[in-house]
Each structure stands twice: as C-alpha cells, then as structure tokens.
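CORE FACILITY INTAKE
Project code: CF-77B
Contact: R.S. (postdoc)
Sample description: multi-component assembly, two entities in total
Requested service: structural model of the whole complex
Turnaround: standard
Below are the sequence entries exactly as provided by the requester. Do not edit them.
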Amino acid sequence: MMDQKPLLEARQVFKGFFGNPVLKGVDIALRPGRVHALLGENGAGKSTLINLLSGALQPDSGTIAVDGKPVGRFSPAAARASGIAVVQQELSLTADLSIAENIGLGAFPRRFGLIDYAELHRGVRDVCAMVGLTEPLDMPVADLALGRRQMVEIAKALYRKPRVLILDEPTSSLSAHEAGILAGLIETLRDRGTALLYISHRLNEVQALCSHVTVLKDGGVTADQSLSGIDGEGLVRLMVGRETGDLFPPRASANPGALRVEVEGFSAGLVRDIGFSGRAGEIVGIGGLVGQGQEDLLLGLYGAIPAKAAKAEVSSKPGLPANVGAANAAGLVYVPADRKHEGLVLPHSIASNLILPSLGRLARNGFRDRAGEAGLIAELAKRLTIKGDVARPVQALSGGNQQKVALAKWLPLDPSVLLLNDPTRGVDIETKREIYLMLRGFAAEGRLVIIASSDTPELVHLCDRVVVLREGRVAAELAGEAISEEAIVGAAMGIDRKGAAA
Amino acid sequence: MSAVKSIFRNPPLLTFVLVALVWLIAGLTLRGFGAYGHLRYLLELAAVIGIAAAGQTLVILMGGIDLSVGAIITVTAILLPLISPAWDPTGLVGIALALAIATGIGFLNGAGAAYLRVPPIIMTLAMATFLQGLLVVVAGGSAVTVSNPAVILLGQGRPLGVPSGVLLWIVVSAVVLALIHRMPIGARFLAIGANPLAARLSGVSLTRNTLILYALSGFFAGLAGILVLGMNRQGYVGIGDPYLLTSIAAVVLGGTSILGGRGTYAGTIPGAILLVTTTALITVVNASPGWRSIMFGTLILALLLVSGREARR
C-alpha cells in the first residue's frame, strides 16, 4: 500500500497572509487506501493547507500535484474535477433546501435542462444509506439537528464519488452513535481505495482510524510518520513538541458548599420535568447524545428561553430568572457553544466584545468611562493571555482565542454560576488545557460550573458529577468513581445499567 | 499616498471630502453657488434632513429601519398649529405636546417590533400608512398655517446670522454623537445591530433597547417636522414625504452599513449636506421635474458607489 503513488500532494508549499507566513515549506502526500491524520494546534496552518489542497487558495510558492503531476493553477473547480472533496468544519448547507437538493447542489443530474429529481433521489439515497441518514430526502435541512446536518454535509461530499476526501473536524458536532457510523464509513472508503485526510482534535479518534500522521506546528511539519506504536501521549508530544503531563488538572477533593441552583419539575424546550441541582464549588457535567435537551437546560436556567419549574431556587432566590438580565443580576452567566453566532459580535473589536456585559456597570453619570474600560480590557486580556491588539476584530482570532474572549467577558461580573455549552469544541489542545485549569480554578473559588459537553473524556476527567440527559429526561446521575466513559455512553444510549436511575 | 488610503478607509471623512470638492468646483464654475447666502440656505435645508436622519442613523445602526419618518414629520407639522394652546404666548407648550406625540408614535413602532415581533420595515410602513389616512380625516387635506411664535423663531430666526435650524442641528449632532460613542446604550445598539442573538445572551435587552430606539427616532422626526413647519410657515399633507428617502440616503452615504452594526452619525452629517447640494445642482440644470427626479436617483446611486460602499461580509 505504502508504495502506491500519492493521489494528491503538496510539495514545499509556502503561503502567507499580509506578510505573515502561515505555511513555511510544507509537504504532505495523500495515498489511496490510507487514512492520513493532520494534527496541529489552532493557528498551526491546518485550514490553510486544506484550502491549498482543495484549490480554494493558491500557494505563494511550491506545487500541488495530482496523480504525481504538478497542476499550474489549481481552482476549486479543478479540484472537484480531479475527485477531491472537502467536508468543512463550518457547515455549508442551505437551510431552506431539502436534504436531497443540498447533497446534489452544484452537481444536479439534469434532464431537458431541469433537475432530474428521480435520478437525484436515486443517487442521494445511496449516499444517505452510507452515512445512516434515515430522514425523508425532501425534508428541509433547517429541520435537522446540528449533528444530522453534519452527516448531510458528509453525504454531499460522498455524492461526488471522491477519490480524495478531506474531513475537517467531522465529529465535533456528532453524537457518539453518529461518530461510530462515520468511523465505519471511513474504513469502508479506505478499503475501496479512497485517500482520506482526517483532521480532529480528538486524539482517540485519530488513533483508532488513522495509520499515518502529519503534524504541523507554526507552519512547518514536525512529524510525518506512521502511527503504529504511538500512543496518545506520544501524539500530544508530537503536537506540542514537549512533555505535556496530563491534559486535565488534578481533581480537587470534592467539597461542595451551599446550594446555588435547585430545580424540580423543570421544563424548558426539549427538557421535560426534570430535577437538577448544583452546589458552590462543584463542576457539574451534562452529557448525552447530541440534542437531548442539554442546551435547553442551560438556556432555561439562564432565562433565555421560556422555562417553568414546580419548585426553583437560583442563587438563594425563589423562582427562575425571567430573562437574561435577571439571570446576570443573580450571578448566572452563559457561554454558548456556537461562539461565532451566539457568543461573539464577530465584526466588532476584541475590546468591544470584552466590555459588552460590563458597559452599564462601568458607566458614570450615563457616560462611558473610557479609561476604566481600557484598564479592565487590558486586565482581562492579560489574565486570559489574549495576545495582540485588542482593537482587532474578534473574527481575526483563532477558535481557541475566540472562546477565551467569550469566557473572559463575563469575569468582571464575578459570576457565582457559570453555564458553559461545549466550551472546548474546535479548540486546540493547549487552549483546552488553559480552559480546564480555569474552570477548576472557578470551582476552587466557590463558583458553580455547569458544563454541557459532547466530549465524553472531558466529562469523565473534569466533572465532580455528571447528569446524562436522554430525550429531555435525566437518564443517569453519576458522581465520583461512578463516572466513566462506559457509564455515560451507556446511559446516553438508553442501555440500562446498574445505578442508572431513569 | 497613505493619507489618501486612510481617507478611503474612513467613510465619514470621505463624504466630507466629497462635499468639499463638490462645493469647490460648483463654487468656481456656477455663478452664485459660492455666495454665503446660498451656502447658508443649503445648510438650512440639510439641517432638516440631518435631524430626521439622526433617528434613522440610530435605527439603522441597530439593524432596523424606520419608514415612518416622513409621516411623523407630516403629523407634527399639521398637528402642531392645531394643538398649540392660545393661552401660551411662548408656544413652547405646543412644541412639547407635538414632540410627545411624535415620540409616542415612535414608541408604538418599537412596541410593535419588540412585543408583536413585526419586522420593523412592515411595522413602520404600516404606521406611516395609518398616519397618512388619519391626517386626511383630521386635517381634511387643507394646509394649516402656523402662528406659534417659538416655531416661527426656529424656522426664520438667524441669531448672529446663523439660521436657528442649523444651530438646532449642531445641538442634535452633539447629542447623537455622544449617545453613540460616549454612552453605554450606543455600544449596545451597535452590538444588537451586528449580532442580536449574541447581544441578547450577553445580557443586552432587545425589548428595552428597541423601545428606546424607535421612540428616539420618532422624537427626532418630530423635531424635524417642527423645523420644516417653521421654515414653510404652514403644514400640509405630504410635507414630510421627501424626507423618508433622503433620511435613509444620508445615513448610507455616510458609510453606515444598511445591515446594521457599523457606522456613525459623523458620516450622516456630510451625507445630508451632499444630498442637498446634489439637489441644488440639479435644479440649476434646466430640466423638467421628471428628468430632475431621474437625475437625482441616478446621482444618489452613483454617490453611494463612491462613498457608501458596503464592505462584503
């Protein structure tokens, strides 16, 4: 297998933006029948390399070669014609079109100049079966949960029968079940001779699926080798370039304080009639398959969606917060999963984003205190090691740094309860560690941290207690030694286990 | 070179430079254009647009639009002479009442947008249509002459040779600029305009800010209505109509994003002056009203291409 000719190659490619070199002489070769992992922290140049391989960008120097032959001007159209398909991290679906129309978009089978829907559905049915999409093909994509949309995105790439398939963090929004289907699919494609490039921050997936790895660091290749004989720690070492120790900070001995949140008969959105509580100094995890009501539980407690409860006490006050303002006043803050659309005002500066929740508090006589604001912004940027000019738009930052801004803006409010929705999604490993340390620190300071996560190891190693939701109800509540990946996944899938109260 | 570049990156400045250029060229080539009296007259006309566009700027910054600006100007101009009480020699009571009504109409716009979740473009358009119908019923289509002394002073007075309308505009500009750039509420408007969901989850109340915003827009439209009334000495149905398109055009000419979240009133000020200048230049050309309108529309489009270019997002 190894001596087969590469289908797609980058040879000594250089690429810079506005004078900043992003890729400095990178080589990568994708061979048929091999799953190739591309690792690197955020900002290491992974996205740029993918854009070069898919023709979205042109290298400043160096060549892209298809079937061993260098191509002059590589365009997205030329890449598609050569059988290269990319599943982007950011979904590129059109919400109002149906599943079938989205999958066929740009490659519609035609008859007399019109879309041949019968033919389209025939082709689409095949790829949907491969990715386990059972929804009706004429269903609008808008009605699908995020994880299902991701599967449509993958089906869309498969519909073009690619020889080279590039998957950029395909599992970040998938449930464990869907990730399993994808893993099977990747193996099938590999056995059929497709060349695959797999980008993920989840190292266990990389170890399970991939046989070869290229590691990028600061725009250069630090490793290009077979994965056999390398364990998780070895992978991390390759990425960070040094010993990392444990990703997760040591768990302090659980010493929960006063009740901060207690609800009974709580319903909000998908959540139906559940009980939930959290104490000061605790990190409470919320797990489950994607879209089982985890987000609605957080939003309901935050007053952002209508919620009701038979009995509720939040921050020693009876009743749920009526709106976000009331929740903030009660010391609750929320960091959304979708930081680009919900967490940050992307076109505005880092400074404006950091100051937004504190505007009213800092104002004097109705006017903004510019000096005070600047001081606070500088302090926050320093505390969260957000580097560079805070006047830059926040969209210029990498995913990990954006997440830090989304979290940092709440710190001046001295929150007593932090509601976090998947705070490490799409975040590089170094920033992950920083965030975990910070959350531990919050708990040690006597704050309650409630964290919904799709990353099971995170729940296991970070949380003092884990509540698993299934179809809007509590499927299991695990504490201490009882928290394990098996217990969480089992409860999430609805498998009856010892100690899992329905 | 870099100075030219920085001008192009700063839409308000670019619009100012454009105004200066047009004035310079027109002043050198057209007899009478550069006369102090003529320029003063242009500023006086621009003041009405500028004041009406003050509210419009705020609304557009927050991602909305107010199509009832023209109708509110008309309502104020017609109602003020009717409701000014005879026992008040200063006329200030009538002004206060008219402004309260205009603010109230704006508040209703905001309530419709915030509570009934009617899109602002529909809410304010429906409000404009409703008001126009109401005026025909109330005023019966005839013009109303104003005798309120404060309004006449505002429209005709020239302390130290400067029209009081222009002075009013300067005050309005200072207030609006402070509101956008020096007060928390301005930063909140901008955040809502750029990303309402993120703003709401950051604790910014959409309801409260929408109500305040449209009430402010109504207030400024009312102020413009009073000024127009004072300048014309009479109010009639349709008096406010020209100010709907011009208030929006002035905002966009000043480089404020029609999508919300980005811009400043500092651009709207030269935007209003540029609009009035354009109209004046077209009037100089001897053309029929139809052709004048066509030229005006074409010129607005051309000016937008130069100064109000929308950055792609």
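Facility notes:
- Chain A has a mean pLDDT of 85.
- Chain A has three domains: 8-240, 246-331+415-502, 343-414.
Invoice: internal transfer
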